[in-house]
Amino acid sequence: MTLWKRDWTPAQINARMADNMAGMLGIAVTEIAPDALHATMPVDARHAQPFGLLHGGASVVLSETLGTLACIMTLPEHQRAVGIEVNANHMAGVKRGESVTAICRPLHTGARTHVWQTEIRRADGKLACVSRLTCAVVDA
Fold it and tell me: Which residues cross the membrane (predicted)?
């Protein structure tokens, strides 16, 4: 059984993100699994802090992007998602020149709020960041 109420494809989502922050950071949705949204993001000059590691803010953008998309995809057409809180814990650095993968899954999908968790991993599989996004569900 799938969570999704909207029949979107990764290509459609990526095209929609092309001219906003997610697109500018190279975030790409790679898979819409029955219970999760998967994505990748490079780590280059756009994402690095002064010491050449992935900036925590870029991880938060990745998490909020996936969490909001996932939340919207579970809602009927007359509802939207609005992010109201995001937090992130950074566990391991990611060097400039590498890339990260992310998997976003629901922790709670209520009538008025959702909580989505995103795990961001380095190429070697090590957990780099875990982040939670709380969204309010509102009428469009």
Answer: none
Nearest alpha carbon to residue 116 among 76, 87, 79:
87
Please identify which residue in the block is written with the tokens 């690095």.
Answer: 48
- Alpha-carbon span 17 to 35, nearest angstrom: 21
Catalytic member of 64, 77, 98, 119 = 64
* Measured CA distances, 22 to 29, 42, 140 (Å): 10, 11, 22
| Homologous superfamily, domain 10-139 | Hotdog Thioesterase (3.10.129.10)
User: Does the active-site annotation cover 64?
Assistant: yes
User: Could you tell me the residue ranges of all domains in the chain?
Assistant: 10-139
Averages of pLDDT over each 10 residues, the chain, 140 residues: 92 97 97 97 96 97 98 96 97 97 98 98 98 97
CB atoms within 10 A of CB 65: 27
